[in-house]
Predict the 3D structure of the following.
Amino acid sequence: MKVAVHNIRAGYGAGADVLHGVSLVVEDSSAVGLIGANGAGKSTLLKVISGFLQPRGGEVSIDDAPVTDLAPHRLAERGVGYLMEGHSVFPGLTVEENLLLGTWSFRKDRSRVREAVEQAYAASPILAQKRKDRAGLLSGGQQRLLEIERLAMIRPSLIILDEPSLGLAPKLVREVYDRIAGLRRSGATILIVDQSARQICAVCDVVHVMRLGRIHMSGTAAEFGRRIEDVVREFI
Amino acid sequence: MFTASIMLQLTIDGITRGAMYGLMAAGLALIFGIVRVINMAHGELFMLGAYVMYFVTVAFGLPAPIGILVASATLFFVGVTLERSLIAPLRARLGDRWLVDGYVLTIGIMVILQNLALIAFGPRERGLASLWPGRMEFGDLVIANERLVILAGAIAAMTALGLFLGRTALGRAIRATAENPEAAQVMGIDTDRIYALTFGIGAALAGAVGALLLSIYPAYPTVGGDILLKAFVVVILGGLGRVGGAMLAGPLLGIIESYATAFAPGGWQSTIISALVLAVLVVRPQGLFSRQVTRP
Amino acid sequence: MKFPSFLRHVGSKTELIAAAMVLAVLVLAPAMVGGRYFPTICISILFFFILGALFDFMLGFLRIVNFGIAGFLCAGAYASALSVTLLHVSPWVGLLIGGVASMLLGLITGALTLRLRGIYVGLATLFVMETLRFTVSNAREVTRGASGLSVPPFEPLFDLTFARNQPLQLYYLLLVLVVIIYLCLHLTIRSRIGLVFKAIRDDELGTTVLGLSVVSYKLLNFVIASLFIGVIGAFYAHYIGILVPTTQEFGIQRTVEILTIAYVGGRGTLWGSLLGAAVLVGVQEVFRDLDEWRLVIYGTVLIAIITVFPGGLAGGVMQLFERLRQKPLPNGDAAPPSKPGEP
């Protein structure tokens, strides 16, 4: 699935623009990373793409068809999975119920639902073990894994991830990124925002650096990999 | 005074009436938990249910179960309409500042519904002699058949509600929306529809209780006021937003009320209960049955 | 025209002129129109104005929804009435007793509930009001309950009489009380205390981080309001002559009336309630025949204010004012950018 944004201007409430004309293309089956300091507008851009924030100017298109007025609840049926910033498990519901919610867009197809849940447990045995526990009682890393498995259930063609490694210990960060790489191998297009420039460069083909609401610099991960220390020091 | 049969009688009376309070409060708790409105118009929804029941059973002479169904269905549509036309736009406009204004909005709805009913139907009480005549006797214990029917109805409704919320996909979706509406949207859930549906269900519950209790609380325009207060008492005891808590706290209130009326002088049971509610609000605002340890 | 410097603390030049004009109208109009009907209406307007302003003092500046405000009115009214009938104090002293009684109620209620989240405060005050109402209703031997408690009128003071058939005198008495109370509220808002109120309203967590005890300030606000509500309640008791603990007088219905006036008038302004009271009491008189429709109108207006005109009448007035003068708004917002051609 190809995603493109063109000249996006956006802001919150009555406030000033946070994004000043951002344009970006994520080619089908590629993995694109967005890095930048806090406040650069990375999360804002993701919110525009996912439909949570209406842009004040510009267009969003998926597979070359305009979707600027997309409602967030239509994402799943289109095969777009969105890992939100912060915690997004449903803490009062059990692990199994959380996973079942991931199947909402195809809930009528019972065999597919059962299959998807079994696959999730196969991919993550710890979740299988805790299936009857309330999701809120899981550790931060387990919750993140639950969120990713839940997202994977729709077999997404596009996965948008907002700071997947936030708040996780390095070992867990690797586990999360391994899972993301696995999803990539299954054919999904990936768009990631993260603080961890190293991981982004490891998983992505193309990296953009955002600064003060604009794309400041772009290049292949290989190029960035060489200059990563400089990039991090200067921009993050 | 304290004979076993009297205690049993009081307890059963209390549980029966309390089951109704619980159902009423469950609707209020549901609405608060998911739509995040303190529905001050909930008593008026009860009132409308009572009127519908009156017209269906007394004016048109149809059997009671039909009356209850019609009342529930009518109030479901009323609820959905109110949510769509007034509450949703307000929520969209105000974001997370909207709790206080939502409360006041429902106050406006309460005033309008109450007075429209007064204009349309007049202040006359319209009641039903009895839902189900006759009674059963077990030694010293006397239970009106009607109370058993009401109790059975309440238990059936509560079970249905519990199963719906706990076991079905839609029920899961509703619970998810309560906890994290944005994450729910990402799953593909249309949260606007969920809010409307939930408000409709809450209203339908209030209407069903109004219908079921017609022989005890006749239909008149201001009947909602007292009922609302009782529903609030239950919701506070059970924990705001907790449907399960409301279903447990209802019978509890019913029993307290039963005993207080029997043993406290004059009209002091209202004062006692009000004071109890205040105590709970101050000491344990998350409700008596909540698993939460910290105060909200 | 030079104003004395201390008045600068009260308000801007525009505000002072406006206040003076309003005060002039309030003082002169009832005397000029005369009769008994008009002053009685004016008493209603003042009564609802000050109660609306007191409600706004809590809601508009600290987001405290005192849904039990009628309960504090009740406390003031009955405390004064009972002190006069049972303890034989003068009604003038009763005004003070009413204020203190209500203030104590406010202190206890506030201390117990103000640390809770907003809606819980609203519910708690609702139940304080209902508990008080039920208690008054049940303590029949003392309060006469639903039969009604007879309350003696104000005694003559300085050769002025305040009998119940002299609404003009009673109006001026109430006006004096209202002006004093309003001035106290206004000065509090303008003071450093008021600044902390606004800080709490805008960012409660941030204010806590600065080391200020949010609960103490909320309690202060609540207690000040309770004191004045009690005084007005005491006035009401001696004015109306008979007290009954019904919902219309001291329950949800009364609270809803007051709340509607504060909302219609405009939250966060204090003076908006004067407009709200004038409009709603006016509507009541005009639509006297259509009694039930009057309340439907109240409810509709309330909904309209919440959904479409959140600024209320005061908001409308300020917008009009800005458009006419193209100058800074009274609360100090920046002037709109000047048009080309202007200096």
About this structure: The longest strand of chain C covers residues 149-150. Chain C has 15 helices and two strands.
